[in-house]
Design goal:
There is one protein chain. By secondary structure, the protein is α/β, with parallel strands linked by helices. It has a single domain (2-303), classed as Arginase, Chain A (3-Layer(aba) Sandwich), CATH 3.40.800.20. 36% of the residues lie in helices and 16% in strands. Strands 2-1-5-10-9-6-7-8 form an 8-stranded parallel sheet, sandwiched between helices. Strands 3-4 form a two-stranded antiparallel ribbon. Bound molecules: zinc ion. Zinc ion (ZN) is lined by residues 163-165, 245, 247, 283-284.
């Protein structure tokens, strides 16, 4: 069984009619997963609710308490914009807390069982920096999950970010930590403009792999073979966290890379050569059809 950490509450983060990061993304993924040939081997798990386990103290160890408070107030007042790209609705704060819980439930599952799982959440997280959310992201889900893992038995945590955009927030939060290795594959130049290969982290624990517009799986495979797998394998991580965004698909409206959904199955197979203790968590991906098929392709190799 592969757990899918999901709640319908994730649909309640309302970004408005014209925003690409919408509830329909999760609905499309859900529909595709439920019609996959191995659908009965998925275990749909509702994340620990925020009354039973508030993640606020953990989030405060990563994010500026003033930002957390301002975000809560913005939601309580009915919502608004953090920046031009990042709307907040009345329920967004609570939904973002539940998303963090899903990621950390995923960490618990992977560490305890030694097996992979998928956190099917929104809002995404990898652009949020310590002091503020940005780029559709409210809390730094992957960095929070990594720190949670380090507090709960893991000695070394690897993060692979294959969203088409650089995971600037994740990198900024973890780049000083020798117990975390962060690797990002992203289109360059592209939003948010960070992620140069020269950014290596305080302990050479960061590996940025900028990819040119139009890149295909033929361009990505050598990068996995020669760079990503050696960098993360030699670290011998106790946990691999994947910031799984799907906006590098050819049909995605927000970027210019030319991957196909089945290429994400190739990525998963590379991850499985590093460890089976993997938490995949959803980041971007804005073309509903290829997004949904890509999640199916990501999970399919986990079934064997
Ligand atoms: Zn993205």
């Amino acid at each position: 069984m592969v757990p899918i950490l999901y709640s319908d509450e994730f649909l309640l983060h309302d970004t408005g009619r014209f925003h690409p990061e919408t509830a329909g993304r999760l609905t499309a993924i859900q529909t595709a997963l439920k019609s996959a040939p191995w659908a009965e081997r998925l275990e749909w798990r509702i994340p620990t609710n925020v009354q039973a386990r508030s993640p606020l103290a953990l989030i405060q160890s990563i994010h500026d308490p003033r930002y957390i408070q301002a975000l809560r107030q913005l939601a309580e007042q009915g919502g608004g914009q953090i920046d031009g790209d990042t709307p907040v609705s009345r329920l967004s704060f609570e939904v973002a807390l539940l998303a963090v819980n899903a990621w950390i439930d995923g960490v618990d599952y992977a560490l305890q069982s030694g097996e992979p799982c998928f956190a099917l959440v929104r809002p995404p997280g990898h652009h949020a920096v310590a002091g503020i959310g940005m780029g559709f992201c409210l809390f730094s889900n992957a960095a929070i999950a990594a720190h949670y893992a380090l507090k709960n038995g893991a000695n070394r945590v690897a993060i692979l970010d294959w969203d088409v955009h650089h995971g600037n927030g994740t990198q900024a939060i973890v780049e000083d930590n020798p117990n975390i290795r962060f690797c990002s594959l992203h289109e360059s130049p592209q939003y948010p403009g960070t992620g140069q290969a020269s950014e290596r982290g305080l302990h050479k624990n960061v590996l940025n792999l900028p990819m040119g517009a139009g890149s295909t799986i033929e361009d990505y495979q050598p990068v996995f073979d020669q760079k990503i797998v050696p960098f993360l394998s030699e670290f011998a991580p106790d946990l691999l966290i994947v910031s799984a965004g799907y906006d590098a698909n050819h049909d995605d409206p927000l970027a210019g890379i030319s991957l196909k959904p089945q290429d994400y199955g190739v990525f998963t197979r590379y991850c499985l050569t590093i460890t089976r203790k993997i938490v995949f968590g959803l980041e971007g991906g804005y073309d509903f059809d290829t997004l949904a098929q890509s999640v199916v392709e990501t999970i399919a190799p986990l079934m064997s």
